[in-house]
Amino acid sequence: MCIMIFEQDAYVFEFEASVTSADKDWVSLDATAFYPGGGGQVHDLGKICGLGVTEVRRKGDDVIHNVPGHSLKVGDKIWCSVDWERRYDLMKGHTAEHLLFGSLKREVPDLNIVKIFISPESKYVIVDADVPWDSIKKAQEFVNSAIRDNLSVTKSTMSKDDPDIGDIRAKPERIEGDLMTVVEIGDVDVAACSGIHVRETGEIVALLVDRKVSAGKDGVAIHFRIGDDAISRSMELSNVCLQMIETLGTKPEDAVKASYNIKHEAETKAAQLRTAVSRLIADLRPETVNGVSVYSGIFDTDDRSTMTDAAEKIKNGGGVAVLLAKSETLSVFLSSGTKNVDCSKVLKDAAAKVGGRGGGKPDFAQGGVPDVSVAETLMNDIVAAVRNSLA
Fold first, then answer.
1. Quick one: which H or E segment has residue 242?
2. Closest CA to 125 of 227, 222, 226
3. Cα(48)–Cα(70) distance, rounded to whole angstroms?
4. What CATH number should be reported for the domain holding residue 333?
5. d(Cα 157, Cα 270) in Å, to the nearest integer?
6. Pairwise CA distance, residues 231 & 245, whole Å
7. Within 10 A of 141 (CB to CB), how many other CB atoms are there?
8. Is 268 part of any domain?
9. Tens of pLDDT along 174-228?
C-alpha cells in the first residue's frame, strides 16, 4: 500500500521513495506526494529521478506515475519532486472554488453544483441554474472578504452516518467507504472534499469571476481566476469597460442600461430586415424551365436562417432556388425539388471559378465566396448550369 503524502501534508513537494513496481512507463512507489487528481482537480506533474512525470492516477490503494523512458527497477530508492508552482496554484484554486460556490449558494439557496474543474489553464464551477451578475458580485465580495480575513482551512473525517451530515455540503452517495473527508474554511464554509487545499485563505490573494457560459444540459459554467491573475484580469476588464462607457457616451452607472437599449434596437432592426428579405424572396417571379420553376435573387443580408428557410420552402414546392446573400462575404444557397439538378456539383463547380467553395447534398447545397463583387457573375453561372440540367 502506498503512503499518500499529499493527504497528510499538501505542502510537501520533494520526497524520497522506493519503487514497488515498474510496468512499462508506469511506476508505483511506497510513498508519493504526487496528487492523482480528484474532486475536479487535475493531477500533479513533476519529476522522478530527473525524468518528467506526465500523468498520475489512483489505482485502488496505489498511485501510479507515468514516467516515459525510465529504467527503474523494483527496490530502487529514488528522489522525486512535484512541480510546486503548479501544485500550489491548484491548491489555491480548489480552496477558492469552495468559497465561491458556498457564497453563490448563499445568494441563490436552490443552486446545486454539477461539476468543478481546476487546472492551471482554467478554473470553473458548473451549476444547475443561471446566476444573475448582481448575485455573482455579492458572492465575490463575500469571498474576497474571507480571503482578507485569512481564515484557517482545516480537514477532518466524518462518518457518512453522522447525524450532523446535513450541516455540510456533501453527496454521500458519491463517496466510497464509510468515512469522508470534510474541509472547513473558518466559520463560512464546510464541505466534503478529498482534494488538496491551502492552510489559510489569505494565500489565495484574490478571486475574480471573469465570465459565465452555457454548459449545455449541465447548466452554466462560472469561470474564475485567483491571485495575481485575478488582479491582472480585473484591470484588463476594467479598461475594456471604461472604453465601452466612453464609446457609449454614458455614465458608468448607466452603461448596462445603455447597452441593453442598443441590443434591443439592433434586434428590432434585424427582425425588420428579416421580414423585408422574406417579402422580397416571396415576391420573386420564377423562370420556368421545362415545367420547373427556377427562383433566383441577390439580397443584402447576413441572415442565413431566412435564406435557408426560403430555399427549403422553394425546394419543397418542387422548384429550384438560387439565392445569394451579400454582407462582408457572399453566401450561396442552392436547393432543388427535382432530381435533375445536383445542387452540390453545380455549386461546387461554379464557386470554384470565382475563388469560393461549396458543397452539400444533391437537393441542397451551401457555399461562400470572399469577393462580393462577383455576385452577378456567380448567379449567372449557377442559373445557366441549372438550365442545362433541366434541359
1. helix 227-248
2. 222
3. 9
4. 3.10.310.40
5. 58
6. 21
7. 11
8. no
9. 666 678 889 999 999 999 888 899 999 999 999 999 999 999 999 999 999 999 9
